[in-house]
Amino acid sequence: MTTSNESISEQKINHEVNVNTPEKQLSQQLSHQLSSFRSADGHKINVVRSPNKQLALEELGYKQELERKYTYIDLFGIAFSIMGLLPSISAVFYQSTSAGASSSWGWLFTSLFGILPVGIALAELGSAFPTASAVYLSAWNFAPEKYKDIAAYSVCILDSISLSSGVCSIFFSCAGQVLSCAQVSNPDFVVTDGKKYGVYCAVIILGAAIGTLSGNISTRVQQTSIFFNCFLLILVFIALPIGTKNKNIPFNNGKFLFGNVENYSNWSIGGNWVLNALAPAAWTICGFDSPIHMAEEAIYKPRDLSKHVLLDPQASPAAFGVILSIIGCGILGWCMLLCLYACMGPSVDNIMNSSYSSIVTQIFMNSLGKQWTLAIMSLIAIGCFFMGVSLILATSRNFYAICRDRVIPPFFADWLAVVNPRTKTPVRAMYGTCVVSLLLGLLIFQEQGSASLFSIAVAGFYMALIIPMGLKITYARNTHETGPFYLGKTLSYIINLIAFGYQCFMIIVVLFPSVNKPNKQEMNYCVVLTFGLLFLALVNYAVYQHKYFKGPRSNITDNEFLEAVGEKHIDDIFFDDEDSSDNKASK
Fold first, then answer.
1. Of 478, 479, 473, which is closest to residue 497 (Cα–Cα)?
2. Confidence at residue 259, expressed as pLDDT on a 0 to 100 scale
3. pLDDT at 83
4. Backbone angles phi, psi at 44, to 5 degrees
5. Residue 235 burial class via C-beta count within 10 angstroms: exposed 0-12, middle 13-18, buried 19 and up
6. Is 369 left (phi over 0), alpha (psi -120 to 50) or beta?
C-alpha cells in the first residue's frame, strides 16, 4: 500500500469477518483487545489483536526481522538443554546432599508446586505478548500510566542481569567439568583460577560462534541437544546401578532415600533443609523463560477453538516450550537424584569430603572406576556446553530486544539491534552478550563472587517476573491482555497468586548466606550485586536514560504496518494523528 503518511492519518479501514470464523470467535473471546503503539513515522496506531501470532508481532509495533524456524518442540529443546539435568545436578549436588537424601522431596515440591505455577503464569504473559521482550513489555502494559517506563526498565535490567549471570554460571560449570576430567585423567593436575577463566573464555566464545549461525543450524543443535541429554540420563540410569552392584556397594534403602536428613552447616536442621533442599531445583530448573525470548522465531498456527487450550501447542509454541521443560526436568531430575542417592553408599561423609571439585565424580569413581568416570564426566562437560549455547542464544535475543527499545544508550543500541541479513540472527547482539558474560566471569577470581552468580541468576529472574505478575493480579486484574494460551480468569488468577508467593519466598531463600553469622569470606554477595547493579541502573535512568527509553519503541512505519498486517486479518484499524503537527515539524 503506497498511501502517504498524511493521508494515512485520516483514513479508517474496516473489514468484516464472518461471525462463524475461528478468528472472529477468538477475537470475541479476547473482547476485541486493542494493541496500541506509536509507529516509526510518529502516528499513534490502535488495532484489534489478531489470533494469528505471526501477525501479532507487527501489531505490537515490531518488524518481523528474525526468521521463524522453531516449533514448540525446538523451543522445549532450548529450555530443556539450558536446564541440562545431569550437568546441573552435578553442579548443585553438594548443596543438595548437605541437607541429606530427603532433599529429593524438596526438589519435587519446588519443581511441581513452585516453579510450574511460575512457568504457567509466564506462559500466559508470553502468549499475550509474543516478542523477545515479553517480560518487560507486559510490565509496561500492566503498570499505571505514570509508572509504565520505570516498571518496564526495572524488569528489563533485572531480567538482563539474571540471563547474563545464568550464562556465566553455566559456562563456568562447563569449565569446571572440563577441568574435573583433567583431574580424573591426571591426579597431579592443579586447577587454578587462571586456568578456570581461560577455559571459560574458550567455551563461551565457541558457544557464541555457534549461536550466530542460521536458524536451520540452530534448530538442529537444539534437536541434537534433546537427544544428547536424554542419552546421558539413560546412560547413567543404567550404568550407575550396574556398576554399584558389581563393586558390591550396598544400595541405600527407601528409608534412607526419603528420610535421611543431614546438616553440614551451622544453621538449625530445619533451616539448613529449607536453604539447601529447596534451592537446588530453583537453580537447575532456571532459564525456562528462554522459549519466551525466542518467540519471534517460533512457528505458530492459528488457535483451533475446537481443542482445549492445553491440547493446542502449535498455537502457543513458546508457552508449551516453557511448561513441558519444567514438567520434564522436574520429574526426571527427581528420578536422577534418587538414583544418585541410592548408589552413593551408606556414608554421606565419604562423598561430602571428596577431593574432587564435583562430589558426583566421587560417586562415579566408586561405582564405575576411572575409565567410565572419565567418559561420563566428558559427556557431562559436553552437555553443559550445550546448556550454555542454548542460554546464550536466548540471552542474545533479549539483548537484541532491549537494544531495539533503547534500554541502553542509542549510540550503542542502534548499532547492536541489527539482524544479519544472511543468517537472519542478531549477530552483533550475540557478541555483545558474549562481552558482558566475559566481564561478569571475572567474578570467578573471588570465591564468594563466583558462587553468587548462581544466586543472581535465580534472584534477578524472580525479581523481574514478580513485577508483571504482581501487577496482573492487582492493578491490571480486570484489564490485562490475554493470548491464545490463557486458562481463564479464575484459574489464571490462582496460579499467578501462587507464582507470586513462591517467587517472593524463593528470593529470600537464595539471598541467605550458606552459613549462620557469616564473615566477609562466607557472605552471600548476591544481595549486594543484584541490588547494587539495579541501583546503578536506576541512577543511570534518572540522570540520562529516561530521555531515550519510553517503553516499547516501534521500528515499523505506517506503510510497513499496513503491508504486513493487511485488511483481511483484522477487524478495524485507525490512526490517531494527534501529534502529527509535531511530527511534521520535526521532519
1. 473
2. 92
3. 86
4. -80, 130
5. middle
6. left
Query: What's the grid cell of residue 480?
Result: 490485562
Average pLDDT in the chain: 83
Domains and CATH numbers, the chain: 1-62+554-587 (no CATH), 84-552 (1.20.1740.10)
Find out whether 274 and 282 touch, Cβ atoms under 8 Å: no
Determine the average pLDDT of the residues in 550-571. Answer: 70
How far is C-alpha 55 from the chain's CA centre?
24
Neighbours of 525 (CB within 10 A): 20
Q: Any residues with CB less than 8 A from the CB of 446 and at least 6 apart, and which?
A: none
- Identify the three-state secondary structure at position 34: strand
Q: If 0-12 CB within 10 Å is exposed, 13-18 middle and 19+ buried, where does residue 534 land?
A: middle
Q: How far, in Å, CA of 341 to CA of 337, rounded?
A: 6
Q: How many CB atoms lie within 10 A of CB 331?
A: 13
Distance set, CA 414 to CA 132, 173, 249 (Å): 17, 33, 61
Residue 506's nearest CA partner among 111, 122, 81, 169 is 111
User: What's the sign of the alpha-carbon dihedral 131, 136, 141, 145?
Assistant: negative
What pTM did the predictor assign?
0.86
pLDDT for 124-140, tens place per residue? 999 989 888 899 999 99
